[in-house]
Amino acid sequence: QLQLVESGGGLVQPGGSLTLSCVVSGLSLDNYRISWFRQSPGQLREGVACAVSTYGPTYYADSVKGRFTISRDNAKNTASLQMTNLKTEDTGVYYCAADLDGCWSPSYWGQGTQVTVSS
Known about the structure:
By secondary structure, the protein is mainly beta. The protein has strands at residues 3-7, 10-12, 18-25, 33-39, 46-51, 58-60, 68-73, 78-83, 92-99, 108-109, 113-117. Strands 2, 4, 5, 6, 9, 10 and 11 form a 7-stranded mixed sheet that branches. The chain has a 4-stranded antiparallel sheet with strand order 1-3-8-7, with no helix packed on it. A hairpin with a 6-residue loop joins β4 and β5.
C-alpha cells in the first residue's frame, strides 16, 4: 500500500515562491506516475502537474505552465513541486498523488497541504 505525505505549504505573498514536498512510503515509486492536484475554495479538484518517470515527460495545467516545476527522486522515494510567481488564484489545498497507469485519476492520495497566496 502506497502512502504519500505532503509538506511545505504555507502563506506566501503574490509573486513569491514555495516548494512542496511529497514523501512516499510502502512501495517503490519506480513504476508510478506522480501527480500534484489542488483544490481551491469552491472549486473542483484539478490536476496541475504530472511526472511520468524520473527522466520521462512532464505535464502541466495551462494555468501553471512556466511557473511550476514537478520533479521526483525515485532513489529517495520523493517528489516535489516548485512553485514560482505565485498568484492569489493558486490558493488551495495541494495533494500529491500516484498511480501505475495514468496521471489524472490516481489511486493513491496524500492528505494535502494548504497553500495560501495573499498580501
